[in-house]
């Protein structure tokens, strides 16, 4: 599913125009990105948590030369699915297997 598909589905469920739905979705994603970039968590109960996670410096290997390299420490965005989200995915998988 791409953004246009998501906007169409949300608009159909809410009776909000596609234009307004797109603006709301843009504002939501922008706000989540800004919040996580500032070092804070965004918790959507039942859906999940967006948060920054620190990665330690580690050793790696240059795939072209085989030389060992040091990969610097960094902060990356992460998402952890909430209980309701996980249960829905697990239950859907069980239905499909039947």
Report on this structure:
- The chain is an alpha+beta fold and 98 residues long.
- The chain has one domain (3-97): IHF-like DNA-binding proteins (HU Protein, Chain A, Irregular), CATH 4.10.520.
- 48% of the residues lie in helices and 28% in strands.
- It has three helices and five strands; from the N terminus they run H-H-E-E-E-E-E-H.
- The chain has a three-stranded antiparallel beta sheet with strand order 1-2-5.
- Strand 3 (58-61) and strand 4 (68-71) form a beta hairpin.
- Helix 1 (3-14) crosses helix 2.
- The longest helix has 20 residues, at 18-37.
- The two termini are 25 Å apart.
- The mean pLDDT is 94.
- It comes from Rippkaea orientalis (strain PCC 8801 / RF-1).
- One of its GO terms (molecular function) is structural constituent of chromatin.
Q: Secondary-structure blueprint of this entry?
A:
Elements lengths: L2 H12 L3 H20 L4 E3 L3 E8 L2 E4 L6 E4 L2 E8 L1 H15 L1
Helix pairs in contact: 1-2
Instruction: Report the CATH architecture.
Output: Irregular
Query: What is the rounded distance between the termini?
Result: 25 Å
- Weakly predicted, low-confidence segments: none
Q: What is the spatial order of strands in the main beta sheet?
A: 1-2-5
Name the average pLDDT.
Answer: 94
Order of helices and strands: HHEEEEEH
Overall 3D form: extended
User: Number of DSSP helices?
Assistant: 3
**Multimeric state of these chains?**
single chain
> What structural category do the secondary elements indicate?
alpha+beta
**Helical content class:** 40-55%
Number of strand segments: 5
Q: How much of the sequence is in beta strands?
A: 25-35%
The CATH superfamily name is IHF-like DNA-binding proteins
CATH topology (fold) name: HU Protein, Chain A
Gyration radius (Cα, Å) is 19 Å
CATH class reads Few Secondary Structures
What number of domains?
1
Largest sheet: 3 strands, antiparallel
């Amino acid at each position: 599913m791409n953004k246009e598909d998501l906007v169409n589905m949300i608009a159909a469920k809410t009776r909000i125009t596609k234009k307004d739905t797109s603006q709301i979705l843009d504002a939501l994603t922008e706000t989540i990105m800004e919040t996580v970039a500032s070092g804070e968590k965004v918790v959507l109960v039942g859906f999940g948590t967006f948060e920054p996670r620190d990665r330690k410096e580690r050793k790696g290997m240059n795939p072209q030369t085989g030389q060992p390299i040091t990969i610097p420490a960094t902060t990356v965005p992460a998402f952890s699915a909430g209980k309701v989200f996980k249960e829905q995915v697990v239950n859907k998988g069980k239905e499909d297997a039947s």
